[in-house]
Amino acid sequence: MSFDLASIVRPNILALKPYSTARDEFSGSDAPRIMLDANENPYDTGYNRYPDPHQRDLKARIAILKGVLPDQVFLGNGSDEGIDLLVRALCRPGQDSIVIQPPTYGMYEVAAGIQDVAVQRVPLTADFQTDTQAVLAAIQPNTKLIFFCSPNNPTGNRLDREPIVQIASRFPGIVVVDEAYGDFDPAGSFLPGLDQIPNLVVMQTFSKAWGMAGVRLGMLFASKEIIQILSKIKAPYNLSSLAQQAALNGLDYSHVVKGLIDLTRQERARLSQELVTIPAVRKVWPSDANFLLIEVAGGRKAYDYLLANGIVTRDRSSVVKDSIRITVGTADENTRVLEVLRQYQP
Ligand SMILES: *Cc1c(COP(=O)(O)O)cnc(C)c1O
Q1: If DSSP codes are grouped into helix, strand and coil, which group holds residue 51?
Q2: C-alpha distances in angstroms, 219 versus 50, 66, 125, 258?
Q3: Distance from C-alpha of 186 to C-alpha of 55, rounded to nearest angstrom
Q4: What pLDDT does 21 receive?
Q5: What is the mean pLDDT of residues 123-143?
């Protein structure tokens, strides 16, 4: 099936003329010039100038790191901005729909709800993989987006590649692969497939492995045509100078981040091996991310017990029976989790 972006973008968005910032109308360096175009405060506070609305320096660095072109990169105030803009760019309120595969990340549904867009739920299989036939069967003429989360939150596993490739080739809308935890599983990334699959969007973030959740910086990779649509509807200065600078600084520490990813993976293995020896723990799901989903006798009761002992986990029993999601912490934190859980009486 050939992919025609113009036929799936909302007509008003296609026709929209974006706001032109002062920095668009004059984009040269401000170094030796007198800048009186943006009604900024002229006295230097360190932050008195508007940030680069196109985040050129940061995109250039990220593009090199990820092996894509700078015009295949969109940067948002967290991945959540990317999710929201995709829904708003493509889905007409009250008419269009998205497909999600529960149990999965909650923001896809919230973004759709804000826009009055219907959500079709196609549950993952018993081992939390894509139900290819069911997803294909769910596609309606007005389905615009299919969300895949890999490694999936809250289950932790990587999704198989083949179903996603197959669905993308048969779907006229956009397939989104949310790789928020992709740094813990680089071999599973869809980024190398970006040029082969025209209707693919890959999302990553600085919030997890990079240790910069407080910066609020999400990355979205796609064809330059898709990136152009999202760039045109974003808030002009969506990333503050502080966020852009913090990310540029953080990129200098990618070797440290790599070491922390290895450490987290080791700790995940230890936590997982120890958890299965605890009788109350009925199941430890395999994880390609920085957390473990476990089924534990009593479910919510185990969550409350951990909480009473000063350990905050995520109760997921409403989406996976008797399950809690535990983030892999430091070695000491993980040891404490194991100690406390060993004392738990369901
Ligand atoms: C944590 C997470 C994100 C990250 O969102 P940010 O807005 O970038 O912090 C995105 N998707 C999933 C599935 C997540 O778990």
Answers
A1: coil
A2: 21, 11, 28, 18
A3: 25
A4: 86
A5: 98
Alpha-carbon gap, residue 120 to 7, rounded angstroms = 21
Residue partners of 309: CB distance under 8 A and separation at least 6? 340
CA of 134 to the centre of ligand 1 (A): 26
Q: Does residue 1 surpass a pLDDT of 70?
A: no
Look at the chain and count its residues. Answer: 346
Ligand 1 in contact with 205 (CB < 6 A)? yes
- Taking the centre of ligand 1 as the mean of its atom positions, its distance from the CA of residue 31, in whole angstroms, is 37
Tens digit of pLDDT for each residue in 260-284? Answer: 999 999 999 999 999 999 999 999 9
Q: Is the CB of 220 under 6 A from ligand 1?
A: no
| Distance from the alpha carbon of residue 8 to the mean position of ligand 1, in angstroms | 25
> CA of 133: how far to CAs of 67, 159, 272, in Å?
33, 15, 32
Whether ligand 1 lies within 6 angstroms of the CB of 156 is answered as: no
Q: Is the CB of 180 inside a 6 Å radius of any atom of ligand 1? A: yes
Determine how many CB atoms are found less than 10 A away from the CB of residue 23.
20
Mutation choice for ligand 1 from 107, 239, 290, 293, CB with most ligand atoms inside 8 A? 107
Q: Whose CA is nearest to atom 15 of ligand 1?
A: 153
Examine residue 102 and say whether the peptide bond preceding it is cis (omega within 30 degrees of 0). no
Secondary element (H or E) of residue 324:
strand 323-327
**N-terminal to C-terminal alpha carbon distance within the chain:** 53
CB-based contacts of 4, cutoff 8 Å, min separation 6: 172
Q: Given the structure tokens 């069967």, which residue do they identify?
A: 137
In the block, which residue shows the tokens 């196609």?
Answer: 122
Task: Report the predicted TM-score, pTM, of the whole model to 2 decimal places.
Answer: 0.97
pLDDT at 212 over 80: yes
Would you say residue 49 has pLDDT above 70?
yes
Q: Whose CA is nearest to atom 5 of ligand 1?
A: 79
Distance 148 CA to ligand 1 centre (A): 13
Is ligand 1 within 6 A of the CB of residue 79?
yes
Separation of alpha carbons 337 and 334, rounded Å: 5
